[in-house]
Amino acid sequence: MKNKVVLITGGSSGIGKALALEAARRGAIVVVAARNIEQLRKVEQQCLILSGRPSFSYQLDVTDPDQIDQVLGKINHEVGGIDVLVNSAGLGDFSEAVHEQWSTFAQMVKVNLLAAMYISRCVAKQMMDQGYGAIINLGSIAGKIPTPNSAAYSATKAGLIQFDDVLRMEVADYGVQVLTVNPGPIDTPFWRHTSPNSQYRSHLPKWMFISVDDLAREVWDNVGYKTREINVPTYVSYLSWVYRMIPGLGDWTIKKFFDFQQNRSEL
């Protein structure tokens, strides 16, 4: 990671921030992008201290393709070619599908799926030309194991996982890695915001929650290798397989454990 240019969207908090700080510890030149410029600048300063190398921050609304083009152009001019891209920006709204609004559906698709697809597409072109690079997209276990009240969110994450599977084949011959990271429940502001009364956290045992710092270390440990996916905790990979084999039993079990309402959250 030393002196590698790492661009992280959603880098102002949560998983994105943890990935930025861990990349800085490993000597990377960290570039963070998100809407909250004040939080971004704090992360930028932390990365500068940790890495001893230049760090950068750019305000970005990932739902605006024109802004994406402008920011990527600035990064190329002011920082240099991107060696590693992390699409970490995400949005969740946990309600029954029949109660969701069109605007909420559209916003989740734009943030969770379309933005990651478009930014990956733009950066992949550059990486193919330079003959190396890594694209890391934050999926979710929700994209593999469905739970009630997460239809739209799960759909966007399942779509991103499938997008990565195809992109991986298309760029493999150019030395570009595509890594999909599918975390389960993780201790970030995402869940603290989505469940202000702690309903979600109290519904699940503490051992199910993942440390965001442990996740960040595992992600960077797998960059530069042929790792396709990181599913954490590891046992969810087996649960996903069981669900596909016995979907009826899976539906019954999941509904018993996860059938409760949530609220809106942003990573």
UniProtKB/TrEMBL annotation:
Name assigned to this protein: Short chain dehydrogenase
Lineage: Bacteria, Bacillati, Bacillota, Bacilli, Lactobacillales
Entry-linked Gene3D superfamilies: NAD(P)-binding Rossmann-like Domain
Pfam families tied to this protein: adh_short (PF00106)
Protein species of origin: Limosilactobacillus frumenti DSM 13145
Gene Ontology terms for molecular function: oxidoreductase activity
Family: Belongs to the short-chain dehydrogenases/reductases (SDR) family.
Domain of life: Bacteria
Keywords, comma-separated and alphabetical: Oxidoreductase
Every Ketoreductase domain range: 4-194
